[in-house]
Amino acid sequence: MKAIFENRQRLSTFILLIISFAVYLATFTLLFNAAHMLSELSCAAAFIVASIPSAILFLRRFKEKSIILRGTFIWIASLISCAVGFKILCFFTQIDVFSSVCFAFCLGLLFPFITKRFVLSGKLPCFSEFCFNALCLLMGLFCAYTFIYYSFSDFFTDIAEKQWLPMAIIAFAILLFAFFRFLLRIVSSKKLPSYALVLILVAIAVLPRLICIIALDTATKSDFNTYFKIGAAMAQGGMDSGKYVAVFPHVIGLPTFLAPLFKLFGAHLIVGQIFNLFLTACIVLLIYNIGSIIAGKSTGITACLIWAFFPSQIFYSVLLCSEYLYTALFLLSVFLFLRTFCKKEHTLPDTEKAKTAYTFIGAVLTGIFLALTDFVRPIAIILLIAFAIFFIVFIIKKKCKEKIVIKISAFLLLAAVYFTCGIGLNAFTEKAIGQPTVAGSYGWSLMVGTNAKSFGLWNVDDSDLYTYLNAGKKLEPQQMQDIFLENAISRIKENGLQGNIKLLFQKHKWIWNTDHDSIQYLKSALNGDGIGNRAFLKLYDFIYYFNTAFYLAIILLVLFSFAYRIRYGTHKKLAVLMIAFCGIYCLHMLVEVAGRYHFTAVLLFCIFAAIGISKTKGNERKFIFTK
Description:
Blueprint: H1 2-31, H2 37-50, H3 52-60, H4 65-92, H5 97-118, H6 127-152, H7 165-189, H8 194-215, H9 222-235, H10 242-247, H11 253-265, H12 269-295, H13 297-308, H14 311-316, H15 323-341, H16 352-376, H17 380-395, H18 401-433, H19 442-449, H20 460-472, H21 477-512, H22 517-525, H23 531-538, H24 540-568, H25 575-588, H26 599-614
Helix pairs in contact: 1-2, 1-4, 2-5, 3-5, 4-5, 6-24, 6-25, 7-13, 7-24, 8-12, 8-13, 9-11, 12-13, 12-15, 13-26, 15-16, 15-17, 16-17, 16-18, 17-25, 19-21, 24-26
């Protein structure tokens, strides 16, 4: 009887698999016209091959009919979702049949892990665990799409045998994995105190940036020159481009920090570059501490090492840009939030009053630095929303009502301090420029971001409109922003649903599929014919492609990291960074995009990838640390 029962279960499983294939092919038929059926059949065949691992998993777990039915239902839904997503990918990229089969098979390998984790485990995960795994899945999809699109796009048209490029990048990712594991082993094998370890990491990060600053002779141009001019004017007690700052208040953020330095040491580019080196040291310290809080010291060390050797991040230190400053403030806000709301009980002060005071002081400091982040670049509201979501889903517990009340009160205080300091900083800006500022500069960003002709990038037409409204009609700053917002709404309506969806994919390309902006900025800013400048121009193509390969390799390591988290467990504190990344991603799908706007996300990638490198099974036991 048992054999008969098992055979029936096996037969029912095969029948369900056949039904799922039929549903899958029917979905293709309904979605796409018959003229493209041949190519769709090849894609369907690729997905059928990719589904073999899931089929094997189900056949091995056929003892409970409910599990098979539930698992096959999830499997069918996964196939349909992948079919739709894969067709969208094919629409916006040009990839051949061999590449489509490889991509489909890679997606198919995810099915057993997903079904085993969510379906065959015998129990449904709790809400917070489900949210964490959902975030990991979203991040994995982002990494997979970015890698595939980048590998098969027109960024590598000059490279011969382009079809082997993805395999070469995968090999490079494996090489980087081994390289950073080796560095981690060397650094961690020494019984060093924490301060000595941090000093070593800071030196490793600062040295290549210092070499670039010394070797390359550059001049300030474009937005970087605006920061320099405003900072120099503020150092002398005046203000340059007052109305421009009134329209775009965040422009005054970096000059406000540079003005005291220019006043002490003179208005020279090297002063700003040395300030970038100071910020480099701060960022390393923050990455190390955030990584340590989330997943241990080995993760903090690895994240610092990845960022220290990241080519694009090195070249940004030569430019007088605001990216280093607002990213340091961004990370400082994250660090203070984690220290305040996610600190383990035994590491807090002994008395309840001291613990409460610690929580409220941390909330106040977090709110202050969030406001300073907004002062330099208006993205802190995204981080505040990420904090709120993380707080509700992962922090609030029902075990102790008194502690819940204290934490909720502290978080509300954090938000109140953030908005209050924002008002104060806006008043400082208005006093510095001598006129009222706009309520927000999102009108311009939305207008540029919805320009389908320029793919959401800065363009001459919108710049001419600003010049016309500023010089021609001589409108007030708020009136100009209102006109920009009206144009943005009109463009969204004109683009239509299909046009807006296509624009989103194009904007993804220009912000997430590019990491060479710093190299191009640096090339245009070279000043003179020194040895360093000549060497940079001679090696420009190599630097360009090496940086691209490094970026894609890190993307693959991030993909591996999240796949590993789903398989072997969670670091729930990581969710705050993932939610923040999702917020940054969604924001830039609406507003203006540029390659350098993902600067902060690159640091998050370093932490994500570091978890996959340092926290693979059994690896964390091999490293010894001292306090």
